[in-house]
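Researcher: I'm preparing a figure for a lab meeting and need a structural model of a single chain. I don't have an experimental structure, so a prediction will have to do for now. The sequence is pasted below. Please return the structure as tokens so I can convert it later.
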Amino acid sequence: MESMSEKIQYGESYQRRWWILVVLCLSLLVIGLDNTILNVAIPTLVRDLHASDSQLQWIVDVYVLVFAGLLLTTGSLSDRFGRRSALAVGLIIFGCGSVASAFAGSASMLIITRGAMGVGGALIMPSTLSILINVFPPRERGRAIGIWAGVSGLGIGIGPLVGGALLDRFWWGSVFLINIPIVIIALVGGRLIVPNSKDPAAPRIDPMGAGLSIAGLMTLVYAIIEAPTDGWTDHGILAIFAAAAVLLLIFLVWEVRSSHPMLNIRFFRNPRFSAANISITLVFFALFGSMFFLTQYLQFLLGYTPLQAGIRTLPIAAVISIVAPITGALVQKLGNKVLVAAGMTVAATGLFLLSRTGVGSGYFDLLPSLIVLVFGMAMTMTPATESIMGSLPKEKAGIGSAMNDTTRQIGGALGVAVLGSIFSSAYTAGFGSSLAQLPAQAAVQVQSSVGGALAVASAIGGPAGKSLTQIATASFINAMDRSFFIGALVALTGAFVALVWLPNRAEPDEKDLERLEEMYTDHHAARPEEQPVEAWVSEEILVEGGMPDGAQPERVEP
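Model: Understood. Here is the structure written out token by token.
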């Protein structure tokens, strides 16, 4: 039931909040699409741009790393200068980067233009969630965040389908041009109906912190990607790992001592904030790592065209878009701990089942396991996001949203990098001495990717080509299974973290109670002295910002 205080507090935006959500979801859709639409084009990029496995991972990861590295800064900027403004600028940059990516002439150029798209994405994504927090009252936020998460998952799920349909009719650059009409519609809608909220007390930006976080994360993932090629004990790789550790340590020290930190490290003292961030990181680690292998498996080993492979990922979109909003409606009834822990456990089960894939497995052998995996991830996204946003004041929605998005993107980048490096090591080891008879250049191509191996086998032909195909297929399946199993262990770790540290519901601290008492004094002349503060908290006071968003202390009627 709509309360008068909600209408007063949220102003005109309250009446059109659901239309605002439509615009925010459209803006978010391009981010979700871009995360997976490229996966279905990976085999095409191997053929047309001659991209190696390392370049393929960088084409995926550079976007995510620039995105993740800038999110905290762009979240702070949106709080300071206006969230609608940040959204508009982000959409423009993202659109320009999409056009440049569509016409990139080499894998190296595509890596650069994808990085530019990451800058735009870093402005778009935190703006959508922070605007949502500022136009929806607490009692509706779980449902709104559920829809937001569902659309995010929808974009991830339909990305391969849209990409496959485009690749079936056009060249690979079309997977980027599809973003342009969505960007234009979102820009117009945002200008017409989205309010430009901001934090009146926002601190200065932290360029040093932003630079340190970008440098540290990119150095770390570069080392992880290159380690399978150069060797984990290679002196150069060890030096890069050491540099990443030093950069990230300096970043943490800087943030603790800064008077205007990009990321207030003290936020992590709140278990509701820290445990939810860990869970989000781990669930996207598993999701993005899994999708990286799945599209290659469907096309290279099962022989599907890009469109056919995209159609077969539709269950991912369907499950996420249905389960995430339903989970959002259950947050207030079941609590965050139960839903996040259960979701991560279900996701781990799905990954374990996927790790049992054999050489003779087909699509319908994988489908039940894939549905279990995605169902668990959809269960996790909404309550974890609600927990993060509900643990901070509404005025800090930009930085809270940025932290939520940072953990998503870092988790996804590390999922592709870590599981990809494990996969590459196992895939290369699977050939053993069988490549000794091949020319050096052919041997390198075989080890670079399963697509390269199958191309060499086709060129050789005869019994030798057939034998190489069998070895490459078995090596790919074995490496993929090992990666899925590691992903299952990671998801189980997330379930344990949620079960042990994530509070089921928010509890007010002493400062919250003091603010509530002051507000009560302003609203009423007196109150029964014998009752504790929690006994007379009303929804109207909660809505007006006295409690952390989502906190629901029990109300006892006087």
